[in-house]
Amino acid sequence: MTRLRQPVATFLVSPAIVLAVAATLPAQATVTVPCDRDNTMYANGSSLSNATGEYLFSGRTASFGARRALVHFDVAAAVPAGSTIRSAQLVLTMDRTQALAFATTIHRVTADWGEGTSKATGAQGQGAQATNGDATWADRFFGQSMPWTTQGGDVNTTPSATTMVGTPAVYTFGSTTALVADAQSFLDAPTSNFGWLIRTDESVTTAKRWHSRETVVSTNRPRLILTYDPPQASVTPFGTGCNDAQRRALTHGASGLPKIGNTSFAFTSTNGVAATVAVHLLTVNVQNPPIPINTNNCFLYVDLATLLLTTPAIHDASGSATLPFPIPNIASLAGITFPTQIFELGGPALRTSNGLTVKLGN
User: Fold this and answer.
1) From 298's CA, which of 78, 138, 212, 318 has a CA 20 to 30 Å away?
2) Which helix (H) or strand (E) holds 355?
3) Could you check whether the bond before residue 289 is cis, i.e. omega within 30 degrees of 0?
4) What is the mean pLDDT of residues 223-239?
């Protein structure tokens, strides 16, 4: 059992510092995510790649077989956690082909792959010797004994998007339900984000050359355009507060919702003992499992080792206290989630409230 003393509460960090970053949150947001990794795999050579070349390739050449491109976008770094993605469009620039219009498909990759330092010469269509960590037709990471399960890339066989690609132009894939689902998964589970594979019909000569992320003109680089709803603000209670002599549980709540820009948002404490101090504790993590504080069924629900902020207020004659917690109008705060709890100090015995899980959002 843990016994806590009743110190005078003090600010550790101001709410503004805890929440500080800068940008304005629209009701719905659109972001352009740059490609942060790409490569080309060449069917005619299990040790060919083009990691740092200016071009990517898909389709089948007249003499050297199929090519497939890989692209990756860090969705979780560009979209707030907890957001709902509504639209996803993959934009690629194709600048060279000798073929007519053929279907080009986008497939979600199901295993990780690498971008080494290989760079093809000339028009780059024949690739270069792969370097350590490059993706090749045979290997996810060349030189590391990490082959693809299926040569040419491990992917979902059903494409996430399809577009007919003919003459050189900028091509947009999506938005489709599957492409949106891929992007949502990349946001919610970043460790399973292995990007997409670009594949053009390989039954005849169909080769297409695309600009890569290394191309000189930035507007020609692969990009992913996402439109999303920021996460919804919420306050969710958990656990129970311990009782006073009248069997009233100390209750931790909130006034309003923690919406971005809600400067009147506040935490509340009710059923306190008049004139006692309500100390609001904000931490990074929940205490799991809860720790019993004393023999009165009082529990610690927040992890004091990750304490960020303590805020004091005095319970009034009715046993209520309000602790203002203004939320800045800062877009990147959306999705931040943290637990809070109230400690009552100065009464007959230390009392604790229920916990709250607080999510900042729209």
Assistant:
1) 318
2) strand 351-359
3) yes
4) 95
Please tell me whether residue 44 adopts helix, strand or coil conformation. coil
Residue keyed to tokens 């109230």: 342
What are 251's strand-pairing partners? 270
- The percentage of residues in the chain with a pLDDT greater than 90, rounded to a whole number, is 83
Among 295, 104, 294, 131, smallest CA distance to 209 is for: 104
| Residue corresponding to tokens 């604790």 | 352
> Which pLDDT belongs to residue 97?
95
Per the listing, tokens 């970043």 go with 190
CATH fit for domain 15-23+231-359, picks 2.60.40, 2.20.130, 3.30.390, 1.10.10: 2.20.130
CA distance 105 to 198: 6
Compute the radius of gyration of the chain from its Cα atoms: 28
| Domain locations in the chain as residue ranges | 15-23+231-359, 29-229
d(CA 57, CA 145): 25
Cα(138)–Cα(164) distance, rounded to whole angstroms?
28
pTM more than 0.85: no
- Across-strand partners of 269? 252, 321
Q: In terms of C-beta density within 10 A (0-12 exposed, 13-18 middle, 19 or more buried), how is residue 69 classed?
A: buried
pLDDT at 28 over 90: no
Q: Quick one: which of 245, 165, 156, 249 has its CA closest to 201?
A: 165
**Which amino acid, residue 270?**
T
Tokens of 205: 């000569």
- From the list 59, 43, 41, 44, the residue with the least C-alpha distance to 96 is 59
Are the C-beta atoms of 319 and 270 separated by less than 8 Å? Answer: yes
In which band, very low, low, confident or very high, does the pLDDT at 310 lie, cut at 50, 70 and 90?
A: very high
Residue 93: count other Cβ atoms within 10 Å of its Cβ: 19
For residues 303 and 281, give the distance between their C-alpha atoms in angstroms, rounded to a whole number. 10
How far is Cα 82 from Cα 356, in angstroms, rounded to an integer? Answer: 18
